[in-house]
Design brief:
16% of the residues lie in helices and 23% in strands. The chain is α+β, with helices and mostly antiparallel strands and 327 residues long. The chain has a single domain (11-318), classed as Sulfite Oxidase, Chain A, domain 2 (Alpha-Beta Complex). The longest helix is centred in the middle third of the chain and has 8 residues, at 163-170. Bound molecules: the ligand Nc1nc2c(c(=O)[nH]1)N[C@H]1C(S)=C(S)[C@@H](COP(=O)(O)O)O[C@H]1N2 and molybdenum atom.
Length: 327
């Protein structure tokens, strides 16, 4: 088949070195293995005095062909947030409510064996072992902005595959209108689940068209490595145009349902966190403005973009909806 699109290459090949080699890390050994690039990365810590950056098994990635608008959404050329910040500044309440405490609290979290049960309104319910999930589709690199509802943001080079690949496997029925997700519930392994700080297990949901959207991925790695526990190992959702709360970590259950499923932060505080939670600078959180964000690693703040800068790819999903009501 003739190659009519630009070569499919991972960000290590197309990002200027001063951007990709940011902070105290660098990558070595990138090997372009063909027109559909399968490349192994090795990121090496030089010296990180106050934070821990572990070397993890490397992953290989491909980028599938897609239309130009969608391709633009698949990677931003904004400077990547450092691996040290991505893995030491986390929201993962099952381990610690302190962002800088999550990495150490989660460091011994065991993610093998692991199963993800996919069921509900489907023709072929199936429980997948994590290693079978990893074989479902080629792993792709997606460089996405992540905007937390708290007002900070990062740029993260995820590795993963589209959620729609998994959903197609189980053959959704036409009665399935939403997808519900659930994090592991195991207080012996997730120490904060012995407290009542949230209603456990953490649950989230997407409308079916949001779940099938090509930007919506299940991430299994970042920075060319398998996913660290603090970032939601072994598999977590990433929905880049929504606040980070929607990107549920360490998933064990995916259920296709007819009605809008519950969402942990909405249960916690319904007037502050809505089901959609689309990034929107024009809809303030009741306790703070959402107009600006602090990009971790930068000084000062920058304007927050509608749909986190992914309007071209996703705005049509919300045509005719009042985003203030459906926040
Ligand atoms: N299970 C679970 N998933 C979760 C959270 C959590 O506390 N528990 N926090 C969410 C929030 S608020 C954000 S901003 C992102 C943070 O992802 P990161 O730590 O990988 O940057 O994870 C989301 N997913
Ligand atoms: Mo968040």
């Amino acid at each position: 088949m003739p190659i009519t699109k630009p070569p499919n290459i991972p960000s290590s090949e197309i990002t200027p070195q001063h951007v990709y080699f940011n902070r105290r890390m660098f990558m070595r050994g990138a090997v372009l293995a063909g027109s559909v690039a399968a490349t192994g990365f090795l990121y090496r810590r030089l010296n990180t005095p106050s934070t821990v950056v572990e070397e993890r098994p490397k992953l290989s990635v491909v980028t599938p062909p897609t239309d130009e608008a969608m391709r633009k959404g698949f990677r931003t050329d904004e400077a990547l947030t450092s691996l040290a910040d991505i893995t030491n500044y986390n929201n993962f309440y099952e381990f610690d409510t302190e962002k800088r405490g999550v990495a150490s609290a989660a460091q011994n979290f065991v993610t093998r064996p692991w199963q993800v049960a996919v069921a509900g309104l489907v023709n072929k319910p199936k429980t997948f072992a994590i290693d079978d999930l990893l074989k479902l589709a080629p792993q792709e690199e997606r460089v996405y902005r992540l905007r937390c509802v708290e007002g900070w943001s990062m740029v993260i080079p995820w590795i993963g595959f589209p959620l729609n690949t998994l959903l197609k496997q189980v053959e959704p029925l036409s009665s399935a209108k939403y997808v519900a997700f659930q994090t592991l519930l195991d207080p012996s392994r997730m120490p904060n689940q012995t407290t009542g700080v949230l209603d456990w297990p953490y649950v989230e949901g997407l409308r079916m068209d949001e779940a099938m959207h090509p930007l919506t991925i299940l991430a299994t790695g970042l920075y060319g490595q398998t996913l660290p526990p603090q970032d939601g190992a072994p598999i977590r959702l990433v929905v880049p145009w929504k606040y980070g709360i929607k990107s549920i970590k360490s998933i064990v259950k995916v259920t296709l349902v007819a009605d809008q499923p519950p969402m942990t932060w909405n249960i916690e505080s319904p007037n502050e966190y809505g089901f959609y939670s689309n990034v929107n600078p024009n809809v303030d959180h009741p306790r703070w403005s959402q107009r600006y964000e602090h990009r971790i690693g930068e000084f000062g703040s920058r304007p927050t973009l509608l749909f986190n800068g992914y309007a071209e790819q996703v705005a049509h999903l919300y045509d005719g909806m009042d985003l203030r009501v459906n926040f």
